[in-house]
């Protein structure tokens, strides 16, 4: 019971404070003229904060009665040659403002001026005889500066079936904020993710970057449509990205080298090195022999996994082939976005048939006796001895002639 009494006491005290506050928020007025003089403009809001030329918006003006008696007002208006009031017909009747109360006047306006700051005059009359109208200036800004959209962080060239990321940069150089920004990407020959992105707002004098992943399947353009709101007014701008299709200079570049071929029981075993001569790491790399060759166990495919740029590793493949003049070796891998790529190298293995050496190694065999390797040396010795004999004979003949 005691707790209930405390609660009721607190509620009663709060009511007394509210009544006292209401009583102190008004000023006693001796007559209608004095009461009318206590009516004033207590504030306003304008949307959008900064107009484009020709845009419409809302001006909400607050009129407050500080007197302790009701005051009637009428004929509200907004006066400026560069500002049109569209809904003037909405204020044809008088409005009574109670003691300490506030009424709002919502004007639908159109900014007809050029760039600059304007001060239209708000005015409203009281119905007290001999009283003056209430006036207040409203600040209104007009700015024709356009929102800019551009493409940033893009590669110099795009490659077919390879995913690259670009940024759509939206810049707001205006004096006021914009809201509800929507970017829609379209292209007849590319996959784009996401196809649509939204930004809640961009404050005045700032920008935002929105990333999009693009995978081109053919030469085409990508169009980004940017819509936004300035107040309740919707505006649109577009930016077009031409996809310059070319060779990806950063791509993985598989290189097959140092291959050797061995045969056993009708099965061919191909060994060698595979290197990554590109500047991008390869993921999930797998090597296999393509058709018409038939891969067989134990190594129909060789899984390498990751292969870093400028690195290499060995591989082994087993297969059956009736023609070694053109054996296709296929390398498959994935990029950082998970897109699968492939490269095929066709090898002529005829000179390796029956040899365990690699490309550039000798695949022939020596014939004849073991002395065949000394033949060049013997020939050289004979030539030297013949030269010595000729020299000694010439010297003997010269000596003989001198004596005679």
Q: What are the key terms here?
A:
404 residues, mainly beta, Immunoglobulin-like, 3 domains, four-stranded antiparallel β-sheet, 14% helix
Can you give a write-up of this model?
This protein has 404 residues and is mainly beta. It has 3 domains: 38-142, Immunoglobulins (Immunoglobulin-like); 148-242, Immunoglobulin-like; 254-352, Gamma-adaptin ear (GAE) domain (Immunoglobulin-like), CATH 2.60.40.1230. It has 3 helices and 26 strands. The protein has helices at residues 2-24, 32-37, 375-403, and strands spanning 39-47, 56-65, 71-79, 83-85, 95-97, 102-111, 116-118, 121-126, 134-137, 140-142, 148-152, 164-172, 178-186, 190-193, 196-202, 206-216, 221-230, 233-242, 254-264, 267-276, 282-289, 294-295, 301-307, 312-320, 327-334, 340-347. Strand 1 (39-47) and strand 2 (56-65) form a beta hairpin. The longest helix is centred in the C-terminal third of the chain and has 29 residues, at 375-403. The termini are far apart. Residues 4-24 and 355-374 have low confidence and may be disordered.
**CATH architecture designation of the largest domain:** Sandwich
Any idea what the radius of gyration is? 46 Å
CATH topology of the largest domain: Immunoglobulin-like
Mean pLDDT score, rounded?
84
Largest pleated sheet: 4 strands, antiparallel
């Amino acid at each position: 019971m005691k707790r209930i009494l405390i609660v009721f006491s607190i509620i009663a005290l709060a009511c007394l404070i509210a009544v006292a506050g209401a009583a102190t928020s008004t000023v006693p007025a001796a007559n209608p003229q004095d009461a009318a003089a206590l009516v004033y403009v207590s504030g306003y809001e304008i949307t959008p904060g900064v107009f484009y030329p020709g845009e419409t918006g809302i001006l909400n003006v607050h009129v407050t009665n500080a007197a302790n008696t009701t005051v009637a007002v009428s004929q509200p208006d907004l006066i400026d040659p560069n500002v049109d009031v569209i809904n003037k017909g909405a204020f044809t009747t008088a409005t009574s403002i109670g003691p300490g109360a506030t009424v709002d006047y919502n004007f639908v306006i159109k900014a007809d001026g050029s760039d600059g700051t304007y001060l239209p005059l708000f005015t409203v009359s009281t119905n007290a005889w001999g009283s003056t109208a209430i006036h207040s200036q409203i600040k209104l800004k007009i700015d024709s500066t356009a929102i800019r959209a551009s493409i940033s962080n893009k590669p110099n060239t795009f490659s077919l079936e390879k995913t690259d990321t670009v940024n759509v940069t939206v810049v707001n150089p205006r004096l006021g904020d914009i809201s509800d920004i929507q970017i829609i990407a379209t292209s007849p020959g590319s996959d784009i993710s996401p196809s649509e992105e939204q930004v809640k707002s961009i404050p005045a004098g700032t920008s935002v970057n929105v990333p999009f992943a693009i995978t081109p399947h053919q030469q085409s353009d990508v169009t980004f449509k940017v819509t936004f709101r300035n107040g309740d007014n919707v505006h649109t701008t577009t930016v077009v990205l031409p996809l310059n299709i070319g060779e990806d200079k950063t791509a993985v570049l598989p290189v097959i080298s140092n291959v050797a071929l061995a045969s056993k029981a009708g099965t061919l075993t191909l060994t060698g090195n595979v290197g990554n001569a590109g500047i991008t790491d390869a993921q999930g790399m797998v090597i296999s022999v393509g058709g018409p060759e038939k891969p067989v166990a134990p190594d129909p495919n060789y899984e390498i996994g990751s292969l870093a740029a400028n690195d290499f590793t060995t591989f082994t493949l087993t297969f059956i082939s009736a023609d070694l003049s053109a054996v296709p070796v296929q390398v498959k891998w994935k990029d950082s976005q998970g897109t699968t790529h492939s490269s095929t190298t066709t090898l002529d293995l005829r000179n390796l048939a029956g040899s365990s050496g690699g490309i550039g190694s000798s695949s022939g065999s020596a014939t004849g006796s073991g002395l065949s390797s000394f033949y060049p040396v013997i020939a050289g010795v004979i030539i030297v001895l013949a030269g010595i004999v000729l020299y000694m004979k010439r010297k003997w003949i010269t000596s003989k002639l001198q004596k005679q």
